[in-house]
Design goal:
By secondary structure, this protein is mainly α. Helices cover about 60% and strands about 5% of the residues. The termini are far apart. It binds zinc ion. The site of zinc ion has 8 residues, from loops.
């Protein structure tokens, strides 16, 4: 392999590695580490932008309003049962209060 090809491969490797590293940092903040690494390595700055713009895989806890994982069943910070709290919206609470009452 010629020296020029080696140099190009080196630059390519450095580009992919630095892209993956920055993508990982951005993806980590958005709770999408692997997505960030993949897009960062493939697309570089464009991938970073896409990861930064992507919707975080997090939801707001109904108990303490902090961001928790979308897949969490119980909030790790305040212990609220997320599924139950989502089912207990204001409308269902009103219906519960009206149940059994005459008009
Ligand atoms: Zn919470």
């Amino acid at each position: 392999m010629s020296l020029a090809a080696n140099t190009w491969l080196g630059w390519l490797l450095a580009w992919v590695l630095s892209g993956a590293l920055v993508g990982a940092a951005i993806g980590f903040r958005h709770d999408r580490l692997l997505f960030g690494i993949g897009l960062g390595a493939l697309l570089g700055p464009i991938g970073w932008f896409l990861v930064a713009r992507s919707r975080a895989a997090q939801v707001e806890c109904p108990g303490c309003s902090r961001h928790i994982s979308r897949t969490a069943l119980v909030c790790p910070r305040c212990g609220t049962n997320v599924r139950q709290a989502q089912a207990r919206n204001p409308r269902s609470a009103l219906r519960q209060a009206d149940r059994g009452k005459p008009w």
